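Let's sit down with a protein and look at its sequence and fold side by side. Please make up or recall a protein chain and show it to me in full. Label the sequence line and the structure token line clearly, so we can match residues to local backbone shapes. Go ahead whenever you are ready, and we will take it from there.
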Amino acid sequence: DNVWEDILGIANQPGESVGFATQKINKLLEQPSLFSFDIDQIYTYLRTNTTQIMLNEDQQKGILSCLQNKISIITGGPGTGKTTLIKQLLTILDKQQYSYKLAAPTGRAAI
């Protein structure tokens, strides 16, 4: 049973109940995490990496939060750095050879 496919599939099925989505998300959260990150090392990388765009403190905290939680929702108004945060997060995941899934309910993500 692929929980992610069930959760992401809800967006394509108008009328699906919020209760169904909640059940699937709770099932995902009950499972132990398959991933472990050296948060201190990644934080140091984010603070000292000068080859990429420097992230502000909120963006750095956002990345660390994403790495410590199974589900993350990134929000903010136009120009607040959501896309920059996600690009840096994906760079970190790619370097560590982790797979991931992204969802953009509005269909307007710029990645």
In short: The first helix runs from residue 3 to 9. The mean pLDDT is 79. The two ends are 28 Å apart (CA to CA). The chain has five helices and no strands.
